Amino acid sequence: MKNTKIPVIYIIFFLFVMALFGAFLFFSVTKPKSYFNPKITKIESAVRGNIKTENFTLAKSEKIYSVYIKPVYIKKTKKKMFVDLFSIYTGVDKKTLYKKLKKYKKRVLLAKVDLKTKQQLVYLRRILDYYRVFASVGGVRRAYDIESVVYVKKNRYEALFNRVYPYGDTFEPFLGRYLKDRGRGDNGIEDYYDNILRPQRNGIIIGYRDVAGNVIYDKNSVVKYPINGKDIKLNINLVLQRRIEKLLDEAKNLYRAKEVMAAVMDSKTGKILAIATSNRYNPKHITKKDIPNMKISAVRYLYEPGSVMKPITFAILLENKKVNPYEVLNGYNGHWKPEWRKTPIRDDDPFAWLSAENALVYSSNIVISQLALRLTNRQFYEGLKKFGFSKYSGIDLPYELKGVIRSLRELHYPIYKSTTAYGYGIMVNFIQLLKAYNVFNNGGVAVTPKIADVKSEAKRVISAKTAGEMLRILRKIVLKGTAKNAYIDGVFTAGKTGTAHVSKNNKYEKIYNSSFFGFANDSKHKYTIGVTFLDIKAPFPNYFASQSAVPLFKKIVIIMRDEKMIGD
Questions:
Q1: Strand, helix or coil at 455?
Q2: Where in the chain is the domain with CATH 3.90.1310.10?
């Protein structure tokens, strides 16, 4: 008789094993009610673009990271260990940490940290997990989360980054600053190119995570990378910029000026290689006294330019064939009282007779006034407009004021025509003058000044012949006239001085705006350089441009030669 008990035992054993496997499979795929789904969503913040020169970064964004945790994730017996170590790594006060962990039951922000600290916290998280500091919730141990955003409300968050200015007040206020509370640039390049610099889109990562807080990248994960703001590259030569700023600081004190400005522009391309002021501020440490310095005077301060307008008037005369540079005119020994004026027109130096071009060389108000009367009101008006006066210069700086010139009706009268000819009754800004003078050094073509490395617009203003003639006369001013101090061996320098009384409460005071706009050229390079002292109070004769602006111009050219920017 066969034994049937053995197969039955096998069958029962097989069924038992299958039941165990089925139970294991069931509990493996079925989530208990208390089970915590470890799938998470992380927002990766986009950051603002950098502002750079060829070799330096003037403004950059450094990410800040927020550290979040639910207090329930920390074992009560291990809380002290967690607080002690977290405080050491982040510098957050222990009492503050205990208070947060006790007060909040939901997810709490423990700290905001920089990149270096964030990396240290990732390491600390592994150490804390090794010592079982984190409790198991729903079968999963959760540590703290490190995010690049801070959560304001549900589905609302703010990107976290610091705007860093490594060189302090260098290139201010032209660089501007970033307003964190408004999320945009304020003034200068930060403002003008805000739409390019600002972050475009935050990134998002969705996936399951491990206990170390890392997302497991598999077929279930979703990754969209952040789109940061674009970088802006500037034409600025930072070494030249900083050296000029130092010169301006010294000049402001020496000549008792309210402000001193200077700029260097490539005459062919319009690239601004340096634009500086004595009145700067540190964008990260603004004080009450810095507030006036936040205004960019180069485009927002309007003033009567004085004698630096005379070459513009002379060029308009040449274009309209109203003057021969070699014709001789009466200088009236420095004192001319025409019938249409209540007061005489005076010159600093009494000349009996002067050639037309020498009216520029020796800066004669009397002769340039006589010449200007030859222009019709429309010829003068349209000539000034062609040179860019009463128009925006196009420089990439915000809030420019375009200035004022006499109207067509006003220029019909001799008194207004003559005073405009030598730079009174017309309001301009510093950049407008720089752009206008550049025409003489660029064959009669105006180019738009640009601080950023972007394309400049070009437009012919006067003929190449007129520009060449003006350059010859402006060179003569350096060789024989009011700008002898601008002469430098081995470099072609030319330009015009201007010293203008400053009007206060409709009365001209013994305060002056002193300027020199000119050129520094060699066989390979052409530069247009402007220097202006605002409200200069230096004693006689130092307030004259020949004694203040011209020597400063020369020092700038010498720096450029030192930096191998000019000089064969």
A1: coil
A2: 39-233
Type of residue at 115: L
DSSP string, 53-70: -SS-EEEEEEE-EEEEE-
Give buried/exposed letters for 75-111 (b at 16+ CB in 10 A, else e).
beeebeebbebbbebbebeeeebeebbeeeeeebebb
Pairing of strands 145-147, 507-521: unpaired
The Cα-based distances of 406 to 124, 397, 414, 427, 446 in angstroms read 72, 26, 12, 9, 22
CB atoms within 10 A of CB 285: 10
DSSP letter (8 states) at residue 268 = T
Distance CA 248, CA 256 (A): 11
Hey, how many other C-beta atoms are within 10 angstroms of the C-beta on 212?
12
Q: What is the pLDDT of residues 405-443, one digit of tens each?
A: 999 999 999 999 999 999 999 999 999 999 999 999 999
39-233 CATH choice from 1.20.120.530, 3.30.1780.10, 1.20.910.10, 3.90.1310.10: 3.90.1310.10
The predicted-structure confidence for 149-167, as pLDDT tens digits, reads as follows: 777 666 666 778 899 999 9
Q: What is the pLDDT of residues 502-547, one digit of tens each?
A: 877 777 778 899 999 999 999 999 999 999 999 999 999 999 999 9
CATH topology of domain 238-291+304-562: Beta-lactamase (3.40.710)
